[in-house]
Write a structure and sequence with these properties.
The complex is a heterodimer of chains A (472) and B (403). Chain A has 472 residues and is mostly helical. Chain A contains 16 helices and no strands. In chain A, helix 3 packs across helix 15 and helix 6 crosses helix 7. By secondary structure, chain B is an all-alpha fold. The chains are: A mainly alpha (472), B mainly alpha (403).
């Protein structure tokens, strides 16, 4: 390509991009052209200009993907015995990680569907990215229950289909509901994300520097030409998809919570679980959005497109959902005593003071105490602190699932059947491997597709212009 | 989209309650007082029955006061045009809290042993589970908690009201942020105290039952009934011109959507509790549903499923209905009626385990407390302008045709 694209020049220069601060969702001086050029410019950066941090990050993530391959390969070869699972804790890392990953996905759906219906304009520059995060998180989540099956190659048995054995899945089991909840969630998220991408894929096609690149984006854009009829139908379809995706924000994690709550295990069987799981999911999701977006926006000098307004709004939502989670903890604690049930109160006592007591202490610290700093505006305005808190919340939400799964199972009604669960190195390897897989997908996504919705940011530009016209 | 940070203040003409309201106020005051006098007869005639009726009526009407405070704090925290439009109505609901505090007194002085098994020493001596709960459920602590709840609620409610009054006078734009900073922790404190209030006042009337979602379930119902009442009153007081078009189809659509969302939310919480308790089949929990799905109570259960969820859900799906004042008001009235059945079903089966029963005091207490509540509520509405005068976020005055 003869001319350099503006993003390339920006990254090469020493110019600092100005963040317009917490009152604005877009930096100054943008017009339709600059928005398209900057966002598509990230994808059309020549490989030699790719930020070094991207290269390093993608390489590390790739190494972890290899670790995942190794761990899963060994699992196929030897079976689930390589994990630390055993009776009484038959649900260990597999379920903890499943719930953790699927929770992370929720922020994406909330941002893209619910905030769209609520007409929150700040969603525009982070919705595409969070939706991608949802998809990748669901992919990671989906792996765990299948790997946990023991014979993962028979996973299709989970679906009800007419078969010669005349066997059907148990429709009363929440685990079976999960199959449908998660697969629906994955499908709708994918369709929603892809439909949202269409106009931008066409922009990418039109900006493509090489013929073969243009052909690839052209095929993906499904013949989008941007005619008035296209836009008219597109907006209807998008609104309908947002409406379809909204109940999924509630339903998926509600059903995940039923996996536990339908049983009679103290610590699992509690009625607050559905709303508290949903809030926890959104909590961890926003934490992950912040963890990823804060470094990425600085690597690509995107501070004028993803501004402090986005960071602050996400921090506030994180604080709010975190408080709902705290409400859940306090209800659990109070009712374990109030119930007068000795197993309930033992469960709680054991959770706090038993062999895994330290995980509960850390959980309270990470999920409840530290995030309270976000009440202070100065903390919300400090990128380093927000980033650190978001990581603390990610850890806290992982610990929450660990506490729920392990402390409830390891000492149940009969002291003679108590046990201790210790994850093996293969448990950790699988978990770390999915982290790498997730990160690699995120890195590739940022590199190959417009990570910020071009046409929606152009709409924001249009809005700002209208407002200015009114003021003049 | 108007931007509150640009600091445009739109002076709002002070709207006042019309004289028609005075008629309603007087009638409800008189009818309420008469019904309460009848209740006194019930008190001396059949004391347990009287207090069962009284508790149910108290919980229903307290729901408006508590819901008003909760939604008010929520509005100040999250902002939004819908909240500015109904703020005065929410404030008036909240300002009935002193009445609710007074109405709690008969229960505290004469009714504890009639309503709550933990306040009957002979029963406590028989039931180990009640002995276990004595540390929390005992008369002095119960009264102390009630006092603390009201002090906290009134502190937050009146303080935020005062700030709103100052905004009316001075139009100081910084007050929006100050009200937000004060209300956000208020939401947290409110939700916790209201949860424990419901555990105390309603849940503890059942010896065995416990459910971690219980407080949230009742609170969300309060929010729902608050939106329903606010919609009804807003449509009635804003008249034909809708406060010069400030109460327009857009604002109603937002309020209708909020009411719709809380219909779904209420259903979500109620259904979750059922789905979790039913298959587990644990006696301590299941007995709560057992009473409610047998004999005539099962029809009441069915009626609630239809009237609290199915019908309002289907009705509120329509955009046209949410944008039309009269049609939206009809749904809101329907929801308020449905909520009566819902709360009756939550409160009474615990006492009427041998099957559905209605006492005349159920009506007398409901009308008595309701009459007084409406009397005080209208009085509060009259004291202040019906729209905030200097909040930049209020809907602009435009004729309906333009909207």
């Amino acid at each position: 390509m003869a001319t350099r694209n503006p993003e390339e020049e920006l990254l090469d220069s020493n110019v600092q991009v100005i963040d317009p601060g917490p009152d604005s969702i877009l930096g100054p001086g943008h017009n339709y052209g600059t928005v398209s050029d900057r966002i598509s410019g990230v994808v059309y950066l020549p490989w030699k200009n790719t930020p070094k941090k991207w290269m390093l990050g993608a390489f590390i993530a790739f190494c972890f993907v290899n670790l995942l391959m190794l761990a899963v390969g060994l699992l196929f070869f030897k079976g689930t015995g390589i994990w630390g699972l055993n009776i009484p804790v038959a649900w260990g890392f597999a379920i903890i990680n499943f719930v953790w990953w699927i929770g992370i996905g929720h922020a994406g759906t909330l941002i893209s569907a619910v905030l769209f219906l609520l007409k929150q304009d700040w969603r525009t520059s982070i919705n595409r990215f969070s939706e991608a995060m949802t998809l990748f998180a669901v992919a990671c989540a989906g792996m765990f229950p299948i790997l946990h099956l023991g014979r993962p190659w028979l996973a299709y048995w989970l679906f009800p289909y007419p078969n010669s054995m005349w066997l059907w899945p148990q429709p009363r089991s929440p685990l079976e509901w999960d199959v449908f909840a998660v697969s629906t969630y994955g499908t709708v998220s994918l369709v929603f994300w892809y439909v949202g991408l269409l106009p931008d894929l066409a922009t990418m096609r039109d900006h493509a520097p090489k013929l073969w690149v243009r052909k690839i984006y052209g095929v993906m854009a499904l013949g989008w030409r941007g005619s008035a009829i296209h836009w008219h139908r597109y907006q209807k379809a998008y609104l309908l998809l947002a409406g379809l995706a909204t109940p999924l924000v509630l339903s998926v994690h509600t059903i995940v919570s039923f996996d536990f709550a339908i049983s009679i295990i103290p610590g699992w069987h509690t009625t607050i679980f559905p709303p508290y799981f949903v809030a926890g999911a959104i909590y961890s999701g926003f934490a992950m959005v912040l963890t990823l977006i804060i470094p990425l926006r600085s690597w690509y000098k995107m501070q004028d497109l993803i501004t402090m307004r986005h960071i602050e709004a996400a921090s506030k939502l994180m604080l709010g959902t975190g408080l709902i989670v705290a409400y859940g903890y306090s209800m659990e604690a109070f009712f374990s005593w109030y119930s007068g049930d000795k197993y309930e109160s033992f469960m709680y006592w054991n959770r706090v003071t038993g062999p895994y007591g330290f995980t509960y202490g850390l959980l309270i610290l990470c999920n409840i105490l530290i995030p309270q700093a976000l009440w202070v505006r100065k903390v919300r305005m400090n990128l380093v602190l927000v980033w650190l808190i978001s990581i603390v919340v990610n850890i806290g939400m992982w610990l929450e699932r660990f506490v729920i799964v392990v402390t409830s199972l390891h000492r149940d009604f009969l002291p003679s059947s108590w046990g201790i669960y210790v994850p093996t190195k293969w448990d950790w390897a699988t978990y770390a491997g999915t982290l790498g897989f997730f990160m690699l997908l995120i890195f590739l996504f940022v590199r190959l597709l417009p990570a910020i919705s071009i046409f929606e940011v152009r709409e924001v530009v249009h809005h700002e212009k209208q407002l200015e016209a009114v003021h003049d | 989209m108007s931007n509150p940070h640009r600091g445009i203040t739109i002076p709002v003409a002070p709207e006042r309650l019309s004289s028609k309201a005075t008629g309603i106020e007087r009638v409800s005051g008189v009818v309420g007082s008469l019904a309460l006098i009848l209740c006194v007869a019930g008190f001396f005639g059949n004391r347990p029955a009287f207090f069962q009726s009284y508790l149910f009526a108290f919980i229903y009407w307290a729901g408006f006061s508590l819901g008003g405070l909760g939604v008010l704090l929520m509005h100040h925290t999250v902002g939004g045009r819908w909240g500015v439009t109904i703020r005065r109505l929410l404030e008036a609901q909240m300002r009935t809290l002193p009445l609710i505090a007074v109405l709690l007194l008969p229960i505290l002085f004469f009714g504890l042993a009639q309503i709550y098994p933990w306040a009957r020493p002979d029963e406590v001596a028989r039931e180990p589970i009640l002995q276990h709960k004595q540390g929390y459920l005992n008369v002095p602590f119960f009264i102390a908690r009630a006092v603390v709840y009201f002090v906290i609620w009134l502190f937050w409610g009146l303080r935020v009201c005062k700030m709103a009054d100052r905004q009316d006078e001075t139009g100081d734009p910084s007050l929006v942020n100050r009200m937000r900073a004060f209300s956000a922790p208020g939401v947290l404190v409110f939700v916790l105290t209201a949860t424990f209030a419901y555990i105390d006042w309603v849940l503890s009337s059942d010896t065995q039952f416990f459910s971690t979602i219980y407080g949230a379930m009742l609170l969300i119902g309060d929010v729902l009934q608050t939106f329903a009442l606010a919609i009804i009153v807003l449509v009635l007081v804003s008249g034909k011109d809708g406060f010069q078009g400030r109460v327009n189809s857009k604002v109603l659509h937002d309020l209708g959507n909020l009411m719709f969302a809380f219909v779904i939310f209420w259903t979500y919480l109620s259904a979750s509790q059922l789905i979790i308790v039913w298959p587990a089949n644990l006696p301590q929990e299941l007995q709560w549903y057992q009473v409610r799905v047998h004999l005539f109570w099962k029809y009441v259960t069915l009626a609630i499923a239809l009237s609290m969820f199915v019908l309002p859900f289907l009705l509120l799906l329509s955009q046209g209905r949410k944008r039309n004042p009269v049609r939206l008001m009809r749904v809101a009235i329907f929801i308020l009626c449905a909520r009566v059945i819902d709360l009756f079903w939550i409160v009474e089966p615990t006492f009427r385990r041998n099957g559905f029963a209605l006492y005349w005091t159920d009506f007398a207490a409901f009308i008595g407390i309701g009459g007084l509540w409406i009397y005080v509520y209208i009085g509060q509405l009259r004291r202040r302008p019906l729209l905030p005068l200097q909040d930049a976020r209020i809907a602009p005055a435009i004729p309906e045709a333009v909207v």
